[in-house]
Design goal:
Order of helices and strands: HEHHEEEHEEEEHEHEHEHEEEHEE
Structural class: alpha+beta
Number of strands: 16
Helix content: 25-40%
Largest sheet: 6 strands, mixed
Number of helices: 9
Radius of gyration: 25 Å
Length: 355
């Protein structure tokens, strides 16, 4: 999903169509998905013909249909985002539920991709002891796969004197040498698929590994050691508890940032103050209530919020918040999606300013 975000984040051109739709992982439910997608494509085409000349619509629809033809409905997650304009077409699957909709604008709607990247977490578990290192990929609380070659990475100590292998200093050195080689294999194997790492090891082996680890900043946390033959799904269960706890704490820290900014008067909560602050490059972090969508019109650089019933009218932006997210990103700001209870004191959206 991040690859699509990187492709579309700087595109600014009339006729950008984004189709956002919930999907189903398994049969028979996923048999509904092509039908719902066809309905949304028809809605997109209708919108395009209302806003553009027929000659402009044709290449957009061509790229949209070519992109849709690539989609295999047997491999869905919770939702899908499809982006197309006259020059581009691509899609990504998301592991979150969305609001089905069609967006036609001068850029692509990316808020759901950003939300998915924030709320859903892919990571590795490196399960290690003195004799074996396993590499397990997980997504939230689900096992993705256990990696093969060169994993599991096994150690066969070359020292044959059993007496020497009982000497703690020698065994520590051999262990760190083993972990050093496993660490190199880890980063080489995952160089095209980098993710944060949870270590599953006892305290002593964690210490040994961290001494030789080449990318300490990538180690997200630690959990207990498991027996070598433990099922990967059991290891992921423990790892997810740790990952979820870490990200919950990070989210609490972001909310604390907002409350601190309020106390320092370094924030905006009025929609037009927020928009002006973003346009002036003042935006540090945009805080948005999860599930908040708002159609609107920008005229003379002022935002007019409109009723949901007018969402499909020409000149009305489907979601003014998405426009804010894109604008703030262009100035180097970020976006955080917050549960409704934590946004009670604000009008669904707030901007923490740099100054």
């Amino acid at each position: 999903m991040n690859k699509l975000l990187q492709k579309v984040k700087d595109i600014n051109k009339d006729g950008c169509v984004t189709i956002i739709m919930n999907t189903h992982r398994t049969k028979p439910a996923n048999e509904q998905d092509p039908i719902q997608l066809k309905n949304l494509v028809s809605a997109a085409e209708k919108r395009l013909h209302e806003e553009f000349d027929k000659r402009e619509v044709w290449p957009i629809m061509e790229n949209l249909n070519k992109t849709i033809d690539k989609i295999d409905h047997n491999y869905h997650l919770e939702s899908i985002v499809i982006c197309a304009n006259a020059d581009f077409g691509d899609y990504t699957r998301l592991p979150i539920a969305v609001e089905d909709r069609v967006v036609v604008d001068d850029n692509f709607a990316t808020r759901d991709i950003i939300r998915a990247l924030q709320q859903n977490h892919a990571y590795f578990v490196l399960a290690l002891n003195r004799h074996k290192v396993r590499l397990i990929e997980a997504f939230n609380d689900r096992l993705v796969k256990e990696w093969g070659n060169p994993f599991p990475f096994d150690e066969y100590y070359h020292e044959t004197d059993p007496q020497k292998l009982t000497e703690s200093h020698l065994l520590d050195r051999l262990t760190e040498d083993f972990f050093n080689r496993a660490d190199k294999e880890l980063w080489e194997a995952t160089k095209d698929h980098p993710l944060p790492v949870i270590l599953a090891a006892d305290a002593r082996n964690q210490e040994h590994y961290m001494k030789v680890c080449n990318k300490k900043e990538a180690i997200l946390g630690h959990i207990r050691q498991f027996p070598e033959d433990s099922p990967a799904v059991e290891i992921v269960e423990d790892a997810w508890d740790e990952v979820h706890s870490i990200w919950k704490k990070k989210n609490e820290e972001r909310i604390a940032e907002l409350r601190k900014a309020v106390s320092q008067q370094k924030y905006f909560s009025d929609i037009n103050d927020i928009w002006t602050g973003i346009q002036n490059g003042q935006g540090a972090t945009l805080f948005v209530r999860k599930g908040y969508f708002q159609p609107g019109i920008i005229k003379d650089n002022r935002i007019e919020l409109v009723d949901e019933s007018r969402r499909d009218e020409p000149g009305v932006m489907d979601d003014i918040v998405d426009e804010m997210i894109e604008a703030n990103r262009s100035f180097g700001g970020d976006t955080v999606f917050i549960e409704s209870d934590d946004m009670e004191d604000f009008q669904n959206v707030a901007l923490v300013t740099r100054y």
